[in-house]
């Protein structure tokens, strides 16, 4: 496979990035709000100090909604890290299959860039990247990188902002009241699982026909 | 604090290693090979991941009040909105907002409040007699009250006493009655212990307990 495709002209590059931005707008809505809720839960429920820092680190290193929601309760109970590892592995097992579709498309991409793409291979990124219509490898790669970078920013800022908001509120508000105000928010994780499952079932039925 | 820091560092490291490990698995397996991916692998993934997600749904429902209809209502709304609109944001928001409304309407007691009940037990033994929340009741009424609230039989019933020795006999009799009604797990806790368990972590639900201690299934039990 020849990777030596001609580099994109500046105008083309701009067009690809613009396209990536418009495609990422639904993700912007989703990631910032979901991330915010995840950050709020982490800070309000997990019982950790420096929640803003941990919100930032967890969201930047583990860009996965299921991870962010799933760790809140175990961390609050200080479940051993090995158990958390097992849990994260089962929650994120589905990611092992996303890469297969991208194998051919990302062949020959330099290591660090590939690592970032793989690091960012979330449900939403996968959906966007596998639906991307750019034929030329350079344009496709640029599209994937821009989408990944934008979604990364959305997610990290959402989670960090949520955790930070709680940290600020906790100083001003009765923590008990704060917990009561966030009551029921934990359902977001169940809803996320339900949505993923519904999508999987939809795909299943479509393929079966 | 130091151990907490290390613990969280572990959680993040493990999360990163596993998430990125999972995502890079195909790239590692097929690194440097030109071979096509076997069809079976893809089919395996298509079957296994929904099963895992389904298991997760069941598991997370077990943490909610699955004996009532409300969590399913919120779940049904989520799926319905998702089938209709196809937007994860819309469906998750709809389901979660409905669930939060149900909780605040008192249809359910949120997880955090059930755990909170341990620091503020439902049943209290005082000099004047037995108290269920704020009312004085007979021991028989207290057991009835637990049943009326559909507190699960495997829940641990916390009984608050100001001095363990003072009510030894009375508590033995009462715990016998509880056991007869099916509540085989009951513990006496003293005021001091109760307030310390809420004082250690003022902003977190009280510690690990597989079964939410006293789990009133209505919102009338909000304690402040």
Protein model, in words:
The complex is a heterodimer of chains A (209) and B (224). Chain A has 209 residues and is mostly helical. Chain A has one domain (10-208). Chain A is 75% helix and 0% strand. Chain A contains twelve helices and no strands. Chain A is globular and about 60 Å long. The mean pLDDT of chain A is 85. With 224 residues, chain B is α/β, with parallel strands linked by helices. Chain B has two domains: 2-105, no CATH class; 111-217, no CATH class. Chain B contains eight helices and five strands; from the N terminus they run αααααβββαβαβα. Chain B has helices at residues 2-29, 39-63, 70-85, 88-105, 111-116, 139-148, 168-181, 191-200; strands spanning 123-126, 129-132, 135-137, 157-161, 186-190. Chain B has a five-stranded mixed β-sheet. In chain B, β1 (123-126) and β2 (129-132) form a beta hairpin. The longest helix of chain B has 28 residues, at 2-29. The radius of gyration of chain B is 24 Å and the shape is elongated. Residues 112-117 and 193-224 of chain B have low confidence and may be disordered. Classes of the chains: A mainly alpha (209), B alpha/beta (224). Chains A and B meet through α2, α3, α5, α6 and α7 of A and α1, α2, α3, α4 and α5 of B.
Task: Show the helix and strand layout.
The complex is a heterodimer of chains A (209) and B (224).
Chain A: H1 10-23, H2 25-45, H3 51-61, H4 65-70, H5 72-76, H6 81-91, H7 98-102, H8 111-119, H9 123-131, H10 137-172, H11 175-181, H12 187-208
Chain B: H1 2-29, H2 39-63, H3 70-85, H4 88-105, H5 111-116, E1 123-126, E2 129-132, E3 135-137, H6 139-148, E4 157-161, H7 168-181, E5 186-190, H8 191-200
Parallel strand pairs in B: 1-4, 4-5
Antiparallel strand pairs in B: 1-2, 2-3
Helix pairs in contact in B: 3-4
């Amino acid at each position: 496979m020849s990777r030596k495709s001609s580099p994109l002209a500046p105008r083309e590059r701009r067009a690809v990035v613009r396209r990536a931005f418009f495609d990422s707008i639904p993700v912007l809505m989703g990631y910032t709000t979901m991330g915010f809720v995840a950050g709020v839960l982490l800070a309000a429920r997990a019982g950790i100090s420096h929640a803003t820092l941990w919100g930032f680190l967890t969201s930047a290193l583990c860009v996965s909604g299921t991870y962010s929601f799933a760790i809140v309760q175990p961390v609050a109970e200080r479940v051993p890290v090995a158990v958390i590892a097992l849990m994260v592995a089962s929650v994120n097992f589905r990611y092992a299959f996303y890469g297969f579709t991208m194998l051919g498309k990302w062949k020959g991409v330099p290591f660090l860039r590939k690592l970032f793409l793989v690091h960012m291979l979330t449900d939403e990124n996968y959906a966007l990247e596998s639906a991307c219509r750019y034929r030329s490898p350079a344009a496709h790669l640029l599209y994937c990188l821009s989408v990944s970078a934008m979604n990364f920013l959305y997610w990290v800022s959402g989670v960090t902002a949520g955790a930070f908001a709680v940290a600020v509120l906790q100083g001003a508000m009765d923590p008990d009241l704060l917990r009561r105000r966030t009551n029921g928010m934990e359902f977001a994780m169940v809803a996320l699982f339900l949505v993923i499952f519904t999508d999987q079932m939809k795909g299943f039925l479509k393929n079966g026909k | 604090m130091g151990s907490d820091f290390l613990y969280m560092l572990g959680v993040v490291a493990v999360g990163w290693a596993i998430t990125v490990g999972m995502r890079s698995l195909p790239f590692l397996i097929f690194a440097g090979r030109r071979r096509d991916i076997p069809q079976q692998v893809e089919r395996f993934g298509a079957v296994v991941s929904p099963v895992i997600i389904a298991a997760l749904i069941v598991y997370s429902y077990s943490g909610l009040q699955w004996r009532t209809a409300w969590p399913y209502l919120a779940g049904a709304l989520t799926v319905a909105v998702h089938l209709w609109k196809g937007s994860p944001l819309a469906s998750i928001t709809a389901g979660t907002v409905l669930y939060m409304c149900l909780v605040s309407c008192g249809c359910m007691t949120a997880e955090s409040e059930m755990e909170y009940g341990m620091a503020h037990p439902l049943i209290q033994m005082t000099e004047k007699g037995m108290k269920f929340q704020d009312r004085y009741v007979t021991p028989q009424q207290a057991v009835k009250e637990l049943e009326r609230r559909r507190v699960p039989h495997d829940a641990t019933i916390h009984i608050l006493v100001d001095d363990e020795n003072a009510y030894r006999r009375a508590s033995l009799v009462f715990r016998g009655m509880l056991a007869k009604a099916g509540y085989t797990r009951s513990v006496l806790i003293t005021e001091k212990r109760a307030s310390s368990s809420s004082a250690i972590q003022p902003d977190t639900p009280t510690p690990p307990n597989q079964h939410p201690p006293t789990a009133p299934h209505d919102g009338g039990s909000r304690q402040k």
